[in-house]
Amino acid sequence: MSQTWKAQQYIKNASFVADYGLPVLKLLEPKAGERVLDLGCGDGTLTLKMAQEGVDVHGVDYSDDMIRKASSRGLSAEVMDGSKLSFCDDFDAVFSNAALHWMKDADDVIDGVARALKPKSRFVAEFGGKGNVNVILQAMETVFERHPEFGVFSNPWYFPSDDEYKAKLEKGGFKVTSIELIPRPTPLNAGIRGWLETFANGITTNLSEAQKSSFFNQVEAMVRPILFVDGQWMADYVRLRFSAVKAG
């Protein structure tokens, strides 16, 4: 199973991701002249905001297509696995929005971030936390259980509790200055199908087109009574937001 990203599809169906990342950027408070790593930069929307403020920002992302889009905006960006960061004492801060839950090797990610940061530098991020998209996730699992021909369901995400991730940060050499789970029901202008096509294509990668259509229809029907509210689709998001400082 392999999640794939198409920049134009992402911009069309998931522009809200960068919009909701603005409070995380405010928490980071990047300053002109600082060197910042944007971990999981995607199409570079928030990377660009930092660059426009005079921040020396470099983006990395696992997706070739996302990096092509970020680079087309004149940004410094490269393809890199977030669990295999190759930097050493290079950055004043590491920023990440809506990306860490895709990196299931959390300890490796944190170790790589620690290596990338200068002493006493900060790591600020937000990503899916415990309970995130739980209704959608349960529906997807149920559909797979009902259809053995679909294969075995594999959860592509890592949604930790605040206590769990705090412990990992501290083990990795960080002092956690703030960490919290934030329930955040999120409107989906592209509907639940657009969300599934964008964020869950790795789950359906081995299904035929007919099976994919059946999967989408069944998941949509199962979650509609809970997530379709007053004519608007809402995703049951829970975000984990934190700020931490590398030990000096």
TrEMBL record:
Per the record's keyword annotation, is GTP-binding included, yes or no? Answer: no
Q: Which residues form the Methyltransferase domain?
A: 36-119
Superkingdom of source: Bacteria
BP GO annotations? methylation
Q: Which GO molecular function annotations are given, in alphabetical order?
A: methyltransferase activity
- Whether Transferase counts among this entry's keywords is yes
Q: What Pfam families does its record include?
A: Methyltransf_25 (PF13649)
Q: Which InterPro entries match?
A: Methyltransf_25, SAM-dependent_MTases_sf
> SUPFAM superfamilies per the record?
S-adenosyl-L-methionine-dependent methyltransferases
Alphabetical UniProt keywords: Methyltransferase, Transferase
Q: Which Gene3D superfamilies match?
A: Vaccinia Virus protein VP39
Q: What is this protein called?
A: SAM-dependent methyltransferase
Q: Which organism is it from?
A: Veronia nyctiphanis
